[in-house]
Each structure stands twice: as C-alpha cells, then as structure tokens.
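Re-run with default settings, no changes from the original entry. Doing this only to confirm the output is reproducible before filing.
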Amino acid sequence: MPTYEYVCPKCSHEFELFQSMRDEPLKKCPKCKKLGVKRLVGGGAGLIFKGTGFYITDYKKKTGSPSDGGGETKPAAAAKK
C-alpha cells in the first residue's frame, strides 16, 4: 500500500497518509478539520530491494576487457589448426 502526501490549503498543514489505492482521497484536514485537502503528486520512490539475495553488484554492466574473457573469440575450427 502506498503512502500519499496531502496538504491543506487553508492551514498549510502537510502530512502523509498510508492508505490503499482503492481508498478515496482524504477530504478533511486532520488539524483544522476543514474541507479542501489536496493530494500532492509525488515523484515516487525508486525500486527498492529489501531482504537477502539482492546486492548492488548484481545488475552492474560488465566491462569487456580481454583479461575478463570479454575480448574477441575465435571459432573452434580455427583454434584447432
């Protein structure tokens, strides 16, 4: 479930609310109790892997240097001659 950001234009109270995507947007400010709260459009968080088995190096690009075995390869028939 996502966390939504809200702001009240009447009292300038900013807050976050953890709610289901199916829930209706909040309409009343929890601080001043007036109607008119606006849901902010956030940039969102990036994809976050939590737990074991995910490492920063898992998806790095590998460089193609000859010492890494990423250099040119010769066909098997040419190598036997």
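The chain has one helix and three strands. The chain has a mean pLDDT of 77.
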